[in-house]
Amino acid sequence: MSRTALRICPLCEATCGLSLTVDGTAVTAARGDRDDVFSRGFICPKGAAFGALDADPDRLRTPLVRRDGELREATWGEAFDAVAAGVRPVVERYGPHSVGVVLGNPNVHTVAGALYPHLLLGALGTHSLFTASTLDQMPKHVSSGLLFGDANAIPVPDLDRTDHLLLIGANPMESNGSLCTAPDFPGRLKALKARGGTLTVIDPRRTRTAKLADRHVAIRPGADALLLAAMAHVLFTEDLVDLGALAPHVEGVDEVGQALRDFTPEAVAAACDVDAGVPRALARELAAAPTAAVYGRIGSCTVPHGTLASWLVDVLNILTGNLDRPGGALFPQAATDRTPRPAGPGRGFALGRWHSRVSRHPEAKGELPLSALAEEIDTATDEGEPVRALLTIAANPVLSAPDGDRLDKALASLDFMVSVDPYLNETSRHAHVVLPPPPPAQSPHHDFALNTLAVRNQVRYSRPAVPLEPGRMAETEILARLTLAVAGRHGTDPAAVDAMAVRQTLGKAVGDPHSPVHGRDPGELAAQLTGENGPEQRLDLMLRLGPYGDGFGARPDGLTLQRLLAHPHGIDLGPLRPRLPRPLKTRSGRVELLPGPIAADLPRLGQALAERPAGLLLVGRRHLRSNNSWMHNVPALTGGSNRCTLHLHPDDAERLGVRDGQPVRVKGAGGEVTAPAEVTDTVRPGVVSLPHGWGHGRPGTRLTHAATVPGVNVNQLLDGRTLDPLSGNAVLNGVPVELAPLTDAQP
Ligand SMILES: Nc1nc2c(c(=O)[nH]1)N[C@H]1C(S)=C(S)[C@@H](COP(=O)(O)OP(=O)(O)OC[C@H]3O[C@@H](n4cnc5c(=O)[nH]c(N)nc54)[C@H](O)[C@@H]3O)O[C@H]1N2
Ligand SMILES: Nc1nc2c(c(=O)[nH]1)N[C@H]1C(S)=C(S)[C@@H](COP(=O)(O)OP(=O)(O)OC[C@H]3O[C@@H](n4cnc5c(=O)[nH]c(N)nc54)[C@H](O)[C@@H]3O)O[C@H]1N2
Ligand code: SF4
Ligand SMILES: [Mo]
């Protein structure tokens, strides 16, 4: 007897609603949910493989604990005993910063990852926090922090209404979008064109997205900040600056014009390797469009000037009056956001409140660069203790961060390591304790993080599609128990963690004059929470205190968990709306268009005007049937065009004597790898491309299928020393490399 269960897809940022066919406890099919208020039936091949991914026989079913050097199956009780016994002595002997925490990408796709890491970090009190954000979007957080006073206030392009989209270093036809949650991004791009809108794509590769574009600019990698600065320059010199309704909320416009005066189209042309007419035309088109949105992603962030490029994206949106207006770039308002406060000055955003121990990298948003994790473990200094114990949660930095070989050795040297991960992979193989979460069908889903980046305000919640298998533990409970174990409260009922979170939130809310529950009794409010367990009660709490919530009776028709459960396909909360000045938390209460740290970094960009890289530059790429490092174990998602090959342009292939399919040795600052060449004119001359997340098959891993098509780890070419200084983000694109073709006989 099969049944249908609805489940939001957790596999990428698009958050599509799926309709799963469940036979017993197995998911036998996944289709797009046509009634989903946001995704309307869209699904991609990864979502369609939900059942195979869920049932992957290599998923761990029980915790593993290292005994006599070997990872062995253990009970949950034994595993948490081992965690407490491993972490506490390190904290007590060397202090809290000697315990590192690594949070990986899937934390933005799980309920557990949204509700517990901050509590875990609070319990530990460590400054040694490293996340996938510094391999990804930290430059955007820093630019938002500086411009708007809130690192999480990230404007998203109004995809469904804009007349003109300028897309920089993003390939949503493969990635399905990022920092812009939009199920069926491809369909939304096609709709933009169908309604007469225009699409411009800036990318060194002619991607599937670039093929859709009205104009494709194949820029030299790493040069976007220069191109965007020249565009802003043109807006000033051609009198095209028009802030419109934004004007009263923005300060520093003239100062930006002054600061960018050297970045003329002629001055940037050679470094970008584009004609000076290009930035001029792009700026004029942007200014002339009735509405327009500038949007930058991975290719604009993971480069040496990532924060400046991210800042310039919003500067262009602001100078053309497109920030915070329909059809431009707006701030979403998610159902679990805090109740918006009245406008006014805030606390602002600070960088560098502490520094990494070895290379003195400044923290950003409470994080240190993931590129610096290996040295924080393997290098002694007089400054304090190295990281001696590590907790990795949903992260595989051995493949996703620079210089995996060094990190691999560093992890092997730790006193103690815990991984919360469903797989024994390149990273978790070093753990002393592995705590496996259940497969997605057995987990609840709500997009706490991604709804704050969605192109339409909406709210959806899925309860687990399948009950927890015997012997499994919900990931929410795993993280609650982990929090207690590292805090020295091992053995306490994990419900205490949720109860504490509820008490804290309510305590603040009742004391806040702007809260709908101001002055009420927290105990009485807590007793009203519904939900089957602590995490559901916390969701209920956030919904009820949020911008659409019932305010515990203050707005009787408002949102509650019960109301959401009555709408299994979700509740549409309408298109994005202008919200300024309320999201601003700068000290001035306005958008600070030329923040000090940005102004101080501009001379470095000035130096880049003279750069003319002579050799080859490496960029990455993504494939629709892959996701970072962990989906290569599902046969349906590998093979075909999803292979770890080195793309290079026919001109470069000819010059270097490389044949299609021939193995090529690629050398970078951090090491070398060998991959088969794929000669293609989709990369521009002077650029080669390798995808990331490959390089499987190290001993001690359990990824049976992935090990048969291992690919190579592109991040071995990086040494981790090249960062965007403001954000600490790794430079993963525009990396200088050398190629040497191998004869088939050479290894
Ligand atoms: N060269 C290069 N490197 C890159 C990038 C690039 O473009 N180029 N991209 C970077 C980006 S944007 C990112 S976000 C990072 C990603 O890098 P990571 O954050 O390391 O993420 P993944 O590689 O996706 O690994 C995710 C881990 O989570 C585990 N996992 C999967 N589902 C769950 C779950 O439900 N719960 C738990 N606890 N664990 C789970 C997987 O088994 C895997 O070990 O990679 C970065 N690395
Ligand atoms: N199928 C699939 N979907 C994914 C993922 C995945 O691995 N696979 N990962 C998810 C994650 S974690 C993220 S963060 C998002 C990322 O989502 P996107 O940002 O859309 O990621 P990419 O597809 O890597 O697109 C980045 C583009 O930048 C280009 N590029 C490289 N260097 C430069 C440069 O210097 N300048 C410019 N202008 N362009 C450059 C590359 O050629 C590439 O086409 O995707 C998410 N979705
Ligand atoms: S686009 Fe992303 S969210 Fe949608 S089905 Fe594919 S993997 Fe899942
Ligand atoms: Mo990412």
Automatic annotation (TrEMBL):
Coiled coil: none
Entry-linked PANTHER family: NADPH-FE(3+) OXIDOREDUCTASE SUBUNIT ALPHA (PTHR43105:SF9), RESPIRATORY NITRATE REDUCTASE (PTHR43105)
Name under which the protein is recorded: Molybdopterin-binding oxidoreductase
Entry-linked CDD domains: MopB_CT_1
One Gene Ontology cellular component annotation held by this UniProt entry: membrane
InterPro entries assigned: Asp_de-COase-like_dom_sf, MoPterin_dinucl-bd_dom, Mopterin_OxRdtase, Mopterin_OxRdtase_4Fe-4S_dom, Prok_molybdopt-oxidoreductase
TM regions (residue ranges): none
